[in-house]
Specification:
Layout (H helix, E strand, L loop, with lengths): L1 H7 L3 H9 L3 H18 L2 H13 L3 H7 L4 H8 L8 H10 L18 E3 L4 E3 L1
Antiparallel strand pairs: 1-2
Helix pairs in contact: 3-4, 4-6
Amino acid sequence: MAKKIKKLLISQEEFDKKFFYGDMEAVKLYIRESLKEYTQDHDRKSLFESLFTAIKWSGITKFAKKIGMSRSGLYDALIRKNANPSFDTLERIFRGLNIRLNFDITDIEDEPKEYKSSQQYQYAY
């Protein structure tokens, strides 16, 4: 992630300075690039670490209170091993960062899924 940010901004030092002083444009750029990277590699851990890094600029405790969570709850949701935050938690985090998520609904052309059925339900693998 840091390499892409270096290409987009003049230097890592400049990014760190903007990030440290809470430049929301730098934070949004960082999150945007993290989300783009996630759509390619599907590495949730990296995405969650990027969100946690973005949260640091405003102070983790202050941010957690702002979105109605504890500091440890926020840490557990994003950084803990096998972290799997709920959609509600992610939505609160993005709102706390003043970032609106937009979804583009397109067909995903993938190999056909194999459906298996149980007594009552069918699910795809």
